[in-house]
Amino acid sequence: MSNQWTKVVLGSLLIALVAAGVAVACPTDAEKTAGIQVIEDYVAPGLNNELSGIYPHPSNDELYYVAANRKPVYRAGQKAMLPENLRGQILTVEKKSGEVVEAWDLGGVEYGGMAYGEGHLFVSSLEPAEILKVSAKDGEIVRRYPIAGPAGGLEFDAERNALIAQIFVGYPQLAVIDVESGATLEALWSDESAMGLAKVQGDILCTWVSSFDEHARAELRLIDGETGEVAGRVPLDEVHTSLAPASATGNLADGFLSLVATGSDGEVAVRHYSYTNDAVTW
Fold it and tell me: What is the pTM of this model?
């Protein structure tokens, strides 16, 4: 999700929480759950403000996709990591090395979430606010879906042949969008501080953060698919943004990937978690 958009929204949220006397605390070891375990960190080719949505490669479990923003906003003294010629593109990355093996320029400026279905990637483009349907073979844009506002998290619901888009500006909502017609079928509740979105073992999961500073509080949330309401929470140690299933091929154990802050200078990793829904204490 765009650092520029989310800092404005989340900064005001954090001020409101502090003013209301709400404690912003970090999770303790006792709050962690056995149903979610870190398996491995994969190398990311850029910093948190350079990268947005992630998704596993549909046919090669050694690769993943990541959306690279064209015009990252850097903090004072922060050094760019992602080469300029790769910005604004969808990158195919080797998990172990972080090497970019392919790049597709979709013409976007900033991106949000990614999803996959029926041989196509779906990519949230923030400027303008739309979802791009992209061939997973060659990166060709085959359709554009205009949406009500910029969307961060994105997921494909095969049962309804619909996209679930986490719109985070204006009226925060989970927009359920019909893939055939492009019409918005429903607008479910959503928290404006929500980040990524993924369906894992039939559960809709969401990442949430209170801010992007050293006092940030982060959660993995279980979302009610009928209403969008939060059905459960698990605290997380670091800021987790983009979210995706662990594998699009089914060759890996059920779990999820998340883009996770690992350093104070904007360093991130793509973290692979196991997920056992009947063992999670929400």
Answer: 0.86
